[in-house]
């Protein structure tokens, strides 16, 4: 179906007036972004747990692979990402409850957490080597599942547009307010 030049009375609009439906949809997206971030935290934590357990038990040439410096160097990248994800998600959830600027906070959180869990999954596969992509292993499942998190509730590219546009808008508003205050 395609409509051209159709007038819709306010009484037939979602929410009963102009832009209410749009605001409701955007609010739903913001809430969903916090949920996606929380999923990312859980998946990143699982990637960390699997990586550390494997590094401690898998042997190569009689040595646990966790004793190799390159493997040791990958684990902190996952661990620091998990901690940052958790803190951002907690802050975004607080912003949601407090009613502060949710749009930017939830987009920042969703972008960072979903990008980070992708990196965590990639490192977890790398730590396992050839077995990291074997069917049925938790790391393989994480690796496949987390890619979708960057698509749900707005792609990473959309999050970047929301964040960039929102920050520029805030700066413009602050500049106008400052100019008005100086002119008084």
From TrEMBL:
<dbReference type="InterPro" id="IPR009075">
    <property type="entry name" value="AcylCo_DH/oxidase_C"/>
</dbReference>
<keyword id="KW-0614">Plasmid</keyword>
<protein>
    <submittedName>
        <fullName>Possible acyl-CoA dehydrogenase, C-terminal</fullName>
        <ecNumber>1.3.8.-</ecNumber>
    </submittedName>
</protein>
<keyword id="KW-0560">Oxidoreductase</keyword>
<dbReference type="Pfam" id="PF00441">
    <property type="entry name" value="Acyl-CoA_dh_1"/>
</dbReference>
<keyword id="KW-0285">Flavoprotein</keyword>
<dbReference type="InterPro" id="IPR036250">
    <property type="entry name" value="AcylCo_DH-like_C"/>
</dbReference>
<dbReference type="GO" id="GO:0003995">
    <property type="term" value="F:acyl-CoA dehydrogenase activity"/>
</dbReference>
<feature type="domain" description="Acyl-CoA dehydrogenase/oxidase C-terminal">
    <location>
        <begin position="21"/>
        <end position="165"/>
    </location>
</feature>
């Amino acid at each position: 179906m395609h409509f051209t030049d159709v007038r819709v009375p306010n009484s037939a609009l979602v929410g009963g007036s102009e832009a209410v439906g749009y605001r409701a949809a955007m609010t739903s997206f913001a809430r969903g972004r916090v949920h996606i971030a929380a999923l990312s935290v859980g998946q990143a934590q699982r990637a960390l747990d699997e990586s550390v357990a494997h590094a401690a038990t898998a042997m190569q040439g009689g040595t646990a692979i966790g004793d190799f410096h390159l493997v040791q160097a990958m684990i902190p990248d996952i661990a620091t990402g998990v901690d940052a994800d958790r803190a951002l998600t907690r802050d975004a959830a607080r912003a949601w409850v407090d009613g502060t600027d949710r749009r930017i906070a939830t987009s920042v959180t969703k972008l960072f957490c979903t990008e980070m869990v992708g990196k965590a999954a990639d490192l977890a596969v790398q730590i396992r080597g050839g077995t990291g992509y074997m069917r049925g292993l938790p790391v393989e499942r994480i690796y496949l599942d987390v890619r979708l998190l960057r698509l749900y509730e707005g792609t990473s590219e959309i999050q970047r547009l929301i964040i960039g546009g929102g920050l520029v808008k805030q700066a413009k508003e602050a500049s106008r307010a400052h100019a008005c205050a100086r002119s008084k």
